[in-house]
Write the structure tokens for this entry.
Amino acid sequence: MNEYEEIRNCLVEMKDLSALMVDLAFSSVMYNSEDIAEEVYLLEEKMDDLTLKVKKLTLRLAKKEEDPESLLSIIDLADINERISDAAYGIADIILRDIEPHPIIRKIMEDTEEELGRVRVHGGSVLVGKTLAQLKLPSKIGTRILAIKRGSRYIYNPGRADTIEKDDVLIAVSSDLDKLRELAGEEIEKEE
């Protein structure tokens, strides 16, 4: 892969991750989800790594360019995405530091019937190998998948053709998150 293609791939990933981070940060506050706020924290670290990688690749590329100043826009794009991710982390940090939310936000959190969480898909789960279209999670259990974390990669706003694999982490909004955990093969602690 040449440097241009590698930079392009990094910038596309950064754009997708920054959009995901903003969604997750806002959702972590609205649903008071420390779990999702921690995911934003992890994504922010990944964004830092991608920013550094893009800058290093751009500097290497500058040695070969007749007009290295033309590459400044690449560094600007990386910096813009980094600032967006920092802002998203700042939003999620409200939850991580256990800051009392504004009364309006608290009221919204009390009134919502949905919750937001991360669910790991285990081997043998009925979800494995099925597309989101086949699973029909929104209509069957009131669940919307915001993202799929597959290893270190994120599939942001997955489509109906995306398939669930073993060890995927589903980031979901659901009116029955326990049912999703059950389908994913997670052990659910029963209240006594």
